[in-house]
Design goal:
Layout lengths: L5 H29 L5 E4 L10 H14 L4 E3 L9 E3 L4 H4 L11
Parallel strand pairs: 1-2, 1-3
C-alpha cells in the first residue's frame, strides 16, 4: 500500500493553481491592453525630476503630442496603435530575438 503524502499533494495543487492564476493574469492583461487604441505607444522608464536628457525630452514630447490631441500610452501597446517609440534600453524586452541579452547597468 502506498502512503499518502499530504505535502506532496499540497505542492502539486499549489503548482497547478499558480499556473492557472498565471494564465488568468496573462489573459486579463491581454484583454486590457489590446482593446484600446492610441496614436503612439511610448516605452521608457521615466526617472523622477530633475532627471535630465532623454527624460526631459520625452516628457516634453508627450506633453506636446497630447496638447495637439494625440493619444499617447506609456509602457504598453494596444492592438490598433499605429506607432511605437521604444527607448533602446528597453528594446530587448519587446524584441527578445533581436538583442540576445539585456543591457547591463
Amino acid at each position: 500500500m502506498v502512503a499518502v503524502q499530504p505535502r506532496r499533494i499540497a505542492r502539486a495543487a499549489r503548482r497547478r493553481v499558480d499556473a492557472l492564476a498565471g494564465r488568468v493574469r496573462t489573459e486579463v492583461d491581454l484583454r486590457r491592453t489590446r482593446g484600446g487604441t492610441a496614436d503612439l505607444a511610448l516605452f521608457h522608464e521615466f526617472a523622477p525630476p530633475p532627471a535630465g536628457g532623454g527624460h526631459q525630452f520625452l516628457r516634453a514630447l508627450v506633453r506636446e503630442l497630447e496638447s495637439r490631441g494625440l493619444a499617447v500610452e506609456l509602457n504598453r501597446i494596444s492592438g490598433a496603435t499605429p506607432a511605437c517609440l521604444v527607448n533602446s534600453f528597453n528594446a530587448w524586452i519587446l524584441m527578445p530575438g533581436v538583442l540576445m541579452c539585456p543591457p547591463t547597468r
